[in-house]
Design goal:
Layout (H helix, E strand, L loop, with lengths): L22 H16 L5 E5 L14 E4 L5 H11 L4 E7 H5 L3 H9 L5 E6 L28 H8 L5 E6 L3 H18 L3 E6 L3 H4 L3 H14 L3 E2 L8
Parallel strand pairs: 1-2, 1-3, 3-4, 4-6, 5-6
Antiparallel strand pairs: 5-7
Helix pairs in contact: 1-6
């Protein structure tokens, strides 16, 4: 290993590949902290979607697989079937989860597949220029749209022992706790876990730091944070 990676190359951290101000870097930082605190780094695999989320491919020293767009949940379900003793985590954006990937996501929910799905909601398709996604609330023309509420929908379909929640890059301490709960549920209950994370996209939002977090605060008023209650009577 030292021949492949000389000491001059090794480092405790390294610059990320995301745009300046992107929320993905802060989200992955908290995910990494949660993984370290749970001590599961050597016993997990990370699936990443096409889009900004694919830039997580070299963020962690973890087995990582890039999937076709919208098929990250399906790939990690297959991985979990092959390696049931390991943690399987699917990381994707709101477009990959709620548009092209919705079918795969819903069937994983309905079958209560024991994987953890993380969806980053920044209200647009970021890597390809900021086009509207299912979660977009305001169109480029200024019209109001109805943003898709993934966790609320999933909570009505999920099994009793599934876990569903939503965090925000604006509250990193809470986000780390939610990551740990989502991962722990997969390990302890052998059931489906789902966490949506509200995030910022300054480049496509065309906002500075202050304006980006003001918009994030608006999102937090619309999308409730924390654990999303499961309707037990329907499960």
């Amino acid at each position: 290993m030292d021949k492949l990676f000389p000491k001059s190359y090794k480092q405790e951290t390294k610059p990320h590949l995301f745009c300046p101000g992107c929320g993905h870097a802060a989200i992955l930082k908290q995910l990494g902290e949660a993984i370290d605190e749970l001590g599961v780094q050597k016993n997990m695999a990370l699936g990443i979607d096409i889009g900004c989320s694919l830039l997580a491919w070299n963020f962690f020293d973890i087995d990582t697989a890039q999937t076709h767009h919208g098929r990250t949940a399906s790939v990690m379900v297959g991985y979990k079937m092959a390696r049931p003793e390991r943690l399987a985590v699917a990381y994707m954006g709101d477009g990959g989860a709620y548009a092209i990937g919705l079918q795969s996501l819903l069937h994983a929910v309905l079958r209560n597949e024991p994987i953890t799905v993380i969806v980053v909601n920044n209200e647009n398709y970021s890597m390809t220029g900021g086009q509207k996604s299912p979660t977009t609330r305001k169109s480029a023309e200024g019209g109001d749209l109805r943003g898709f509420k993934g966790p609320e929908m999933i909570s009505h379909l999920a099994a009793k022992n599934a876990w569903v929640g939503r965090g925000s890059v604006g509250n990193p301490r809470q986000l780390r706790v939610l990551f740990k709960k989502a991962l722990a549920n997969q390990m302890e209950n052998k059931s489906f876990s789902f966490l949506e994370v509200l995030s910022i996209c300054p480049v496509n939002w065309k906002t500075d730091a202050a304006a980006s977090f003001e918009r994030l605060k608006e999102m937090e008023k619309i999308y409730s944070l924390g654990e999303i209650k499961i309707d037990d009577e329907k499960n």
